[in-house]
Every structure is written in C-alpha cells, then in structure tokens.
Write a structure and sequence with these properties.
Length: 281
C-alpha cells in the first residue's frame, strides 16, 4: 500500500499519469527515512529539510503540512503495510501538481509515501569489501540546488551503472572544480591522523541528515579534530579511512580506492554514537 495525499491505495493503482511534473521535469523532492517500531529516526531534521527545500523550489506548502500531520501519514502507511513493528524504510516524495511546461500552472503539491522492510533495527557496520572509484564522466555543480534531495538524480543513476559495470560498490562524485563532493548515495567523510573532514555545502554536497548528526557528534568529542573543507582526489590515497553516510545505512566504510586499502576503526566508533543519537530522537 502507498499513501497518496492521505489516501491508502494499492501499489498497483493508477494514481499518477503522464503529466506528472516529477516525471516530466524532476520537479519533486524526496526524503529517505528510517523507522523502527514506529519511531521515526531524526524526524524533525527530515521535516525541516523538506520544508526548507520546498521553499527554495517555490512550492506552496499546504497549511496541513505540520510535523504532527505528516508523522501521522507516515505511520498510517507503515500500519497499512504491516510495518509498524520492526525496521522499515520510508520514501516520502513531494511533487508540484500537474500543469504547465517549465513554468508551472500551480505551485500546489501532492505527496506519496512508500514503505519497505529493512533488515536491521539499528545502524550496523558492513565490513564486507567496499571498493570505490571516481566518476568523471559528469560533474556536480557547486550550488544550492545540488544540496537539495530532488528527483534530479541522473548523474547518480549513470554513476551507479558505471560502478556496476566495472565491479565497484560505489563511486565518488566530483564537482566542476574537480573536488570530491560525495558518494553516489551519501556524504563522504575522510579520516587522517585523527583529523576528520567532509566537504562543505558550498562544494555542492547533499545536505544530508546523518552528515548533520555526525558533525554535531564530532563537535562534542575531544579525541577528533573536525572541519568542513574541500577534499582533493589526491588526498583520498593518503587517508587512513573513508566512509559514506546516509539516513538508511548510517555509516558505510570504504575498504579500497585504487591501490589504497583502509581501516574502519573510526567508522565503528562513530556508528555506536550515531545509534545512541537515533534512540534519543
């Protein structure tokens, strides 16, 4: 079952048509959200990011779109799919309503909520081989639009195909200034001699929820030095550790980039603290 504008419908229902602006122009935003036993991880952060992104894209935010109302809609979808108990993944998509060409006829929006089962109730560390490569066919623009979680993800799709065809688990994206921005499915953190850094939003990286949480965690830990700063491709092979963050996996360590292999000790340390932060929210 999916929740379409508050109506619970079969996944096979024809509730969208060829005029959908998300399909035609990528005129849509989405949030990927982890939920465990009906508890929505970092819900306030997801909600505030969605509202800010809607304002940036000049979408009309419905009066009903309170945090409480949307939480009810998420939980209704979970219940309809038998996922209120245990771990689940929610995709919440908002798109501008049909009409117009590039210039929309309306800024009113609709939404879809989808739910799927997840394997684990907590963020777990995947220590399997995880090799990455730079994706250099296309580049990310270092601007505000690149920081939003929109449906314009063609570079991520093509990059994922490149990774699959070449036996990589992921790729790292570069911006037009040839700086490393992020992975195909999350933010990138680099560790070197107890110093941790991640690209800033000015570099064009996604304004990730777990990225934000880890930055807050790192700010409270004396044993690590942290900075938001550009990462050059040259630095990757000098790093002690690289890891990727997103709201579903939490922290994914990178084990190999070209001839360099990495350890995972910092990722493991931070994962426990991330799980603790998730339980508090």
């Amino acid at each position: 079952m999916v929740n379409y504008n508050g109506n619970l419908l079969s996944k096979n229902s024809s509730y969208l048509n060829h005029e959908n602006r998300g399909l035609r122009y990528g005129d849509a935003l989405f949030e990927s959200i982890r939920v465990v036993n009906g508890k929505i991880f970092f819900w306030e952060d997801h909600y505030l990011r969605l509202m800010a992104s809607m304002r940036i894209l000049r979408m009309e935010i419905p009066m009903a779109f309170t945090m409480e109302f949307l939480e009810e809609q998420l939980l209704a979808c979970l219940e309809a799919n038998g996922l209120l108990e245990g771990p689940a993944r929610i995709r919440f998509t908002v798109f501008r309503n049909n009409g117009g060409l590039y210039l929309p006829q309306t800024n009113d929006v609709s939404y879809i909520i989808e739910a799927k089962l997840l394997d684990s109730p907590f963020f777990t560390l995947n220590n399997a081989a995880y090799e990455v490569e730079l994706f250099k066919d296309f580049y990310v623009n270092p601007d505000m639009l690149s920081t939003l979680k929109t449906n314009n993800k063609v570079i991520n799709v093509v990059g994922s195909i490149f990774a699959s065809e070449n036996g990589y688990q992921n790729c790292l994206l570069l911006n037009t200034e040839k700086r490393v921005v992020e992975a195909l499915n999350g933010n990138l953190f680099l560790v070197k001699d107890g110093y941790i850094k991640t690209p800033s939003l000015k570099d064009g990286c996604l304004n990730g929820i777990v990225r934000k949480k880890l930055i807050a965690i790192l700010g409270s830990l004396e044993k690590y030095r942290f900075e938001e700063a550009p990462i050059s491709p040259f630095e990757l092979q000098k790093a002690d550790e690289l890891f990727i963050t997103n709201a579903i996996s939490g922290i994914q360590p990178i084990t190999k980039y070209r001839k360099k292999e990495y350890n995972t000790s910092v990722a493991a340390d931070l994962l426990g603290k991330l799980n603790a932060a998730a339980r508090l929210h």
